[in-house]
Write a structure and sequence with these properties.
The chain has 144 residues and is mainly α. The protein contains five helices and no strands. The longest helix is centred in the first third of the chain and has 66 residues. Keywords: Membrane, Transmembrane, Transmembrane helix.
């Protein structure tokens, strides 16, 4: 093998390595660009969600101010103070973070009981509508 063949082999190896690195760089850039686009899209969605939540909150506050005839600020301050004391009422977004565990457990159990009763009332109404027999466990709903 002549001496110049080694030079050709090394030039080919270096050229192929550079082509490989170039293709790897292009692939990395495309992945990075796609990730940035996804972050941008998620940011837009979050901005839209926050704007909608702020509109709902301001509408709820304005409805609350109209009902209380000028007591909206004091009611809002009371809600904020209740959150600060750990006695959140569920009127402010994120209130559950600051509520006490006992209050959250009570809220959960009462909401669960309400869901069970609602399903029971729907079952009784559906069976009454169809003319089906009622379950013994639904007797107290029939008495109401």
């Amino acid at each position: 093998m002549p001496w110049w063949s080694w030079i050709v082999i090394w030039i080919a190896l270096v050229a192929l390595s550079l082509v490989y690195l170039l293709l790897l760089g292009i692939r990395t850039w495309r992945g990075f660009s796609a990730t940035l686009d996804a972050f941008h899209h998620a940011g837009e969605e979050l901005t839209r969600y926050r704007a909608g939540a702020e509109q709902k909150l301001s509408a709820a506050r304005s409805a609350g101010e109209g009902d209380s005839a000028g007591e909206g600020d004091s009611a809002r301050d009371g809600d904020t103070q209740a959150v600060a004391r750990g006695q959140a009422t569920g009127k402010l977004p994120g209130w559950a973070v600051f509520a006490s565990p006992d209050q959250m457990k009570d809220d959960y159990t009462s909401a669960k009981a309400e869901r069970v009763n609602r399903r029971r009332r729907m079952r009784v109404a559906r069976r009454s509508e169809r003319g089906q027999l009622q379950s013994w466990r639904d007797i107290e709903v029939l008495l109401d």
